[in-house]
Design a protein that fits this description.
Pfam families: ABC_tran
Structural class: alpha/beta
Helix content: 25-40%
Largest sheet: 6 strands, mixed
Distance between the termini: 44 Å
Strand order of the largest sheet: 6-7-8-3-9-10
Keywords: ATP-binding, Nucleotide-binding, Transport
GO molecular function: ATP binding; ATP hydrolysis activity
Protein name: Multidrug ABC transporter ATP-binding protein
CATH architecture of the largest domain: 3-Layer(aba) Sandwich
Radius of gyration: 25 Å
InterPro entries: AAA+_ATPase (IPR003593), ABC_transporter-like_ATP-bd (IPR003439), ABC_transporter-like_CS (IPR017871), ABC_transporter_ATP-binding (IPR050763), P-loop_NTPase (IPR027417)
Length: about 325
């Protein structure tokens, strides 16, 4: 039996393609313009969101709880009606051309909504049929094997572990061969081994041309996997950038210098350098922006002239999580 979300995806009001709304050439595979969503309670979950998702990229959408991530995904996937603005999936308007847009999209939601007594094979095959796709046992087998579900194909979902049920949710989303895949917290509550397997699958999908949009609380995953990162807070997109560029521009580096002899106070000649003593004077820490490219050699020469000797040094760079926390704090 289909879940309530799946029924909405298939039975939601859809208007046939209009001649005055053709696909937009050259636009991102997902194009969002001035998107608003206000619920009946009066809460405005999305405020004028503008976003372009490029074809074939892995895009990580980050934000604190309640920031609007799930609402944004739900609008794009046709599960929540927008209050204003426009969303197109590969050029198809998600309201005026609902069926064509939705057929391009696979969604792995946060909740494990599955029919408890159905088998894995029947559940995934049924999801394919919901999108009007003809039976394709070879494709279903390939998906199940890729997700290490083949041995469980005849098992009822009620007998599966949480991690296995999460795999089934991904298999259902891939059953109709979507070109756009939304992963809403896909690795929440799964073990490390399964998480690594999932990301290998995600990389393979991206390499085959599938566009991946994910939300995650494991920010190290976004840092490792995503081509670009978008940060949403209080219903507004506050930043979108290439992951590496974001790290370069907003990341900070720390040069940690381990002294041969502890230093109680900084020599006067070094006070303007912004150095900090750490570990009871055993270390000097110099923090700088990654794009500043400070003259480390000059700093070390100044240390020598001040009579400070060191036996080791290393650099540390701020993580994407630290950048994210900083951005959200500044947006308050």
């Amino acid at each position: 039996m289909p879940t309530s979300a799946e029924r909405r995806a298939v039975d939601a009001p859809a208007v046939s393609p209009r001649a005055d709304a053709p696909p937009v050439a050259g636009a991102g595979v997902i194009s969002i313009r001035h998107l608003d969503k206000t619920y009946d309670s009066g809460f405005q979950a999305l405020k004028g969101v503008n976003l372009e998702i490029r074809r074939g990229e892995i895009f990580a959408l980050l934000g604190p709880n309640g920031a609007g991530k799930t609402t944004l995904i739900s609008v794009v996937c046709g599960l929540v009606n927008p209050s204003g603005g426009e969303v197109r999936a590969d050029g198809h308007d998600i309201v005026r051309d609902f069926r064509a847009a939705r057929s391009l999209i696979g969604l792995v939601p946060q909740e494990l909504a599955t029919e408890a007594f159905a088998t894995v094979w029947n559940t995934v095959s049924f999801s394919r049929g919901l999108f009007g796709k003809p039976p394709d046992p070879e494709h279903i087998e390939r998906v199940l094997r890729d997700l290490s579900l083949w041995e469980k194909r005849d098992s009822r979902l009620i007998t599966l572990s949480g991690g296995m049920k999460r795999r089934v949710m991904i298999a259902k989303a891939l059953s109709h061969e979507p070109r756009i895949l939304f992963l809403d917290e896909p690795t929440a509550g799964v073990d490390v081994e399964l998480r690594q397997e999932m990301w290998e699958l995600v990389r393979g999908l991206r390499n085959s041309g599938v566009t991946i949009i994910l939300t995650t609380h494991y920010i190290e995953e976004a840092e490792e996997m995503a081509d670009r990162v978008g940060v949403i807070n209080r219903g507004e997109i506050i930043l979108v950038d290439e992951t590496r560029e974001l790290m370069r521009k907003l990341g900070r580096k720390r040069l940690v210098i381990q002294l041969e002899t502890p230093c109680a106070t900084l020599p006067p000649a070094l006070t303007s350098r912004g150095l900090e003593l750490a570990r009871d004077g055993h270390e000097l820490v110099y923090t700088y922006e990654t794009h500043d490219h400070p003259a480390i050699a000059d700093l070390l020469e100044e240390l020598r002239q001040a009579g400070l000797r060191f036996h080791d040094l290393h650099t540390e760079q701020s993580s994407l999580e630290e950048i994210f926390v900083s951005l959200v704090r500044e947006d308050r």
